[in-house]
Amino acid sequence: MIKEIATTPYADQRPGTSGLRKKVPVFQQRHYVENFVQSIFDSLDGFAGQTLVVGGDGRYYNREAIQTILKIASANGFGRAVVGKGGILSTPAVSALIRSLKAFGGVVLSASHNPGGPDGDFGVKYNVANGGPAPEKVTEAIYQRTKTITSFKIVEAADVDIDTFGATQLGDMRVEIVDSVENYAALMQTLFDFDRIRDAFRSGFAMRFDAMSAVTGPYAHAILEGMLGAAPGSVLNGAPLPDFGGHHPDPNLVHAKHLYDLAMSPAAPDLCAASDGDGDRNLIIGRGRFVTPSDSLAILAANAHLAPGYRSGIAGVARSMPTSGAADRVAEKLGVALYETPTGWKFFGNLLDAGLVTICGEESAGTGSNHVREKDGLWAVLLWLDILAARKQSVDAIVRDHWATYGRNYYSRHDYEEVDSDGAHALIKTLRDRLPALKGRSFGALHVKEADDFAYHDPVDGSDSLNQGLRVMFEDGARIVYRLSGTGTAGATLRVYIERYEADPAKQFGETQQALADLIALSREIAEIERFTKRRAPSVIT
Ligand code: VG1
Ligand code: CO
What is this model's ipTM? Predict the structure, then answer.
């Protein structure tokens, strides 16, 4: 029943910031999925008889990939596979299940916030036993294996019915189809005061949560409307669709502009929120107040103790390097450590496992805690709800109060998407070579204090990650950061992160792009963005 099938390597299976992401037709090539999945298993040891969790965000090709993964997992000796019904599991739900079941690992099928459908994106990511994305040494081993693979093992069997609860046998492996939401919802109940949030909804608190036709729909319906009593209709676009209804399931001010417009209108509910394709990102907009992800991280860290799950305080905070320094000020005030890591959730795993931090976040709308090892969109929304219910204040009031206490970090990210790859790499190389000369230079009122290429030394396992983003830091604490995206599937995307700290309460209510205008202009000048990318302006500003 187990067959070993000859194959030839693909040269392009290097995992990026978050797994292997490609256009669907790339994954549909002969043995493309098989090669990658076999390479994952070839890079692991000791999983014979163990449990593997499998699920994805429901995007096009999810169901086909799951069948292939199950058959290869069985042939390679896994003892049990646990699959979300219909193949649906959000990324944080996979992480939670791996941990609850003490599974060996899990495979997440998603390309996150990228569009889905036959011409859209697909992705495969391996998560390890702590529930988090495989660390770099594992993803690197997987990549090396993809370059030399000559065969894969697969059981020959009919497809598993993944739409019916219960257990079946696939070769020697048991396959269990489980509820996509149950385990995750139970975990949320241990962290938050559901009674208090329910009371708030009963007293008229109104929210809209846009699941963007992606994976969080079933979770949001069950938890927000079902368990917490949010008014029916609070959840928008709650049915996961293989093509996300043709939309871009990215919860930012560009792709969720309708929520922003609603939040700024006279009909605004108390809270507008959204999550992305695979459920790990979050967007928070109060009535009349958008909360930047970097501010959200800081505010959640400062207020987490109000929620039962964090009552005894937090051990520390970690943020990705390009994320604003707002969280640093909170950590300082709380007297806890602040860690600055490269972009991508995989770098938080060791810090969380070692108990060095409790709350983590990224400027890209990802926030999470030690409850799982992925960022978690709905968790962030629930923590906000619990804080709002505890403080009985509006989002706007909480944000203003936060700035008054800590100061404001004006922050914006400018993305130059799908630019010519050679040009983007040349831009980075040229700027990297110029960094030493930038130090000490002045541009108008801006004086460069430091300029470097960010490197991270993991304090837990001692590993080093080099070339994680170019930083230009100014005397007044302002900063410009440049890096290339590791999640795109076409050309290259240049991300430019711009930040300025403002301590003066009288200057904390400016418009972000205006407050950063001089830095934005300089960001284009010192990296010669137009020359290298042929773009005068970014395609997305968040
Ligand atoms: C982007 C974000 C990063 C995030 C990653 C995965 O990576 O910048 O912060 O961790 O996406 O998020 P990059 O390399 O394109 O900048 V998700 O929601 O796509 O899993
Ligand atoms: Co995501």
Answer: 0.98
